[in-house]
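Reviewers asked in the last cycle whether our approach scales beyond single polypeptides. To address this, we selected a multi-component target totalling 718 residues and predicted its structure end to end. The input consisted of the following lines:
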Amino acid sequence: MKESALNFFRRPHLRLASAFALVLCFAQLAAGAEPVSAPAGKAPAISVRNLEGTSIQPLADTGQKATALFFVMHECPVANGYAPEIARIMSEYSAKGIRSYVLYVEDDLTPAKARDHARDYGFKSGTLLDPKHLLVKAAGATISPEAAVLSPAGEGLYRGRIDDRVADFGKRRVEPTRRDLRLALDAILAGKPVSARLTRAIGCYIPEGHSSKTERN
Amino acid sequence: MNLTNQTFARSLLAATVVLAAHSGFDAVAGNLKPLPENVTFTEHVAPILFQNCTRCHRPGEAAPFALQNFQDAQKRGKQIAEVTAKKFMPPWHAEHGDVEFSNERRLTDDQIALLGAWHKQGMKEGDQAKLPTPPKFTEGWQIGKPDLIVKMPEPFEVAAEGKDIYWNFVLPLNLTEGKWVRALEFRPTARGVVHHSLYYLDTAGDARKFDERDPMPGYNGMNRSNRQFESLGGWAVGGEPMLLPAELAYRFPTNSDLVLQTHFHPNGKVDHETSTVGIYFADKAPTRKFMTLQLPPLFGRLSGMDIPAGATNYAVKDSFTMPIDVEAFSVTPHAHYLARTFQLTATLPDGKQLTILKISNWDFNWQEDCAFKNRLKLPKGTRLDSIITYDNSAENPNNPTSPPKRVKWGPMSTDEMAAITLSVIPARDEELDGLRTAKRTHNIDLFIDRALEDTKKREQVELMKATFDKNANGKIDPEERPGLRAFLEASGKLKGIEGGF
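The resulting structure, written as structure tokens, was:
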């Protein structure tokens, strides 16, 4: 993918400010403080492209009860192993008012390759590209796969593992003993506080910087 | 099948799979080389990756992503630093004892420190002139054109998720004459989900019958053990085939079927496997014999293992004294998900102790054969002691049963097994029978020990004691055993336990 094709943001200063506000939310969440709302109760206007190239504002308040983001890398075996569960959560909670997206976070992944991956792994919709890590940074995600849940106002409500089936590299339980993301979403839907708002995801590290070549076939 | 063939065929993984041979011994702890001021990809990282990682981490191979160049490494720099520091990668679990392994896949502490420092220093590329030549790998069959190629008759579908799958596939060989075989090469199609495959030779047509019981391709490998078949080694991720030394070969009679027991890891998408196996014939019959010794024998079937739910350190032990001079050339651990540690120690007649195998962090997913760099002489009178420990607590994330339940020996993934298999060549071929007899005696003694513990057959046990416990001390002492062994052999009760591993 060419760098210019990714440069589709029209108001970068606003985007950065919003991202900063979200990072603050999560920083406070991590420190055990109460999450704060984004300025003026409005969700940050971060725009990214879906796999067909359409610009999407995943965090925009359009009446959803919360937004769930799944950060993945297409060659990450841990994320791939979770694909069926991610697809199930997206489908089941969509009916309950949770809007969900899968975010491909690699800067060298072409939309065509992402489309192949989404088809192979059963992501039917809600797949986005985040090569510039706008949402990665906004949510504070560091791992593939990692889930983040935000309120319509942009508050961080949950971030971390989907469940505890992966205990360590190469150590995978047959069944999870705690389904953290589902518990968080259920609490949010019931208007209750999320009991564990930050958990540790185990998987592949999201590259911290951009790779030196954006084109790699 | 004659004695020679059986003993050859029973080498578990030993001779056919030799994984890429790599680095040497670790630096002594605390004795690391000073790190260079500027750690770069071209000078420091590329040599490590090219030699230890790229074989699997390249397109078309089993590893999930490539590690072939600077961009690949930079993208995964933090991951590389962490998984190598944790010794999750490269996958290799045997620790350094007194035997050096030729197929060890282990980085030295210096190499691990370099990878960590490279990430910490910002992953610089460095001087292009210092980049070593990237490794070249043979495409297609690794050891040349096979003499015979057999393929799974139909594809096997692997679901997107769920438990690991162990499935047996029967590949008829249709040999018109008996053959000596020097190597097998396994080629999977679904490399992302095929983790390993063990090869067996069925000369009785049993596997075909198991296969015919349902319309699915093959049959479930965890519901039916392949113990009755001859083991021919296997392939695991990262492995490469190796021709047997000229002095060794397997015997394949005309009526043989090849049975593949393949382990699949579902990984997010539906996949299909149609394995192909290349078979390489030997020109002539082998000139040397080898056999395997298993501690405990029969994969632990006679060990009496009975692991209580919640036990964190349950031990299964066995001992065997070598009746002849042998040279050992490989060791292979086997257990299921609950095992945690393995140790095999040899005490030589002069009292010297050697650690042959030590694993502190067993991982069922990596069925590794450890091939010895140099053959290890074990003189007559050497005592082998094995200990395998198990964690059947809820805290063990590998525990396949939640909440934990009592676990005994069995073929299912929720049962357990116990074995450390040592492949040995007798110093003198004519003494091989002495070793076979000692193995058989050991098996019968374990059978007697278990029988004495059998509370359900109290009457028979009392009768046995009344007849053979001459000194009436309530036990069957070593000097009282020969009579009981002879009685049991004559009784036909030992079917299936006399030979075995």
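The longest strand of chain A covers residues 66-72. We regard this as preliminary and will revisit it once experimental data from Aim 1 are available.
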